[in-house]
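Re-run with default settings, no changes from the original entry. Doing this only to confirm the output is reproducible before filing.
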Amino acid sequence: MNQPLIGDKTASDMVTPDTKVLIDGTVVGELKYISDYKDFSNNPEEQKGNFFPTVLGDKYKGKEITCTGIKNGGVTKEVDNEWVLRVSSQESGFKFECDDEEIITLRFKEATLNGPVVIPPLDTDLGKANGGKTVLNLIGADVKISWDGTTGKPTGKIKNVEKYDTYPDGQRNGHYFPVQFSEQYYDKELHVGGSLSGDEFTAGSNFTPNKDDPYLVIRIENCTDGNKVKVFDVSTKEELFTIDFSAATLF
């Protein structure tokens, strides 16, 4: 379904082609990350995240549908059989009813909710700018990153790397985490690490991902806020997201 649903977004903007709903309502597949869905809500916090398109059967056209959020209890009633749901976490669920009978309950525990960044495939060459390393040079095959809103939390083993020559003296040994930015951030200047003090960034450095080089390698020992690294939009000073390494294993 590639017709716009709300505003200019289509199903292909929201989910990968293999995403599907099983007979029991379980959603499997990947939900893409969207950072600028202004037509979905007037609330800036609800304009970014994971969204799921749902089309109910033709027999429900013209009838009032009730959608109840399983996690937050919110209730929405619309005379519409096409819906876009904002999925805040894998614990989210949505129960659809018509004429006091359940149509389906969608659950997302088996779905992958992508965030502003993903972990590239293990055999990805991160390019000359990142020292010609592959992802598997830096992390174990068990590493995953799960998202709750705009906070990503990696789990699994992150390797200790020595003599990482693309880093300056004093930073060439340590633990490094590779990420791939989603296309919403291509050609935008971002500030990675540090924090915002007044109108100035402290510590950290700037980075501009693009189609040819969407990768960034984060040195965890450079995190200035405990185990966390924050990413800001340089032009707007908006804090975009946080990666929290507290659940990862450094070895």
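The chain has a mean pLDDT of 92. The first strand starts at residue 20 and ends at 21.
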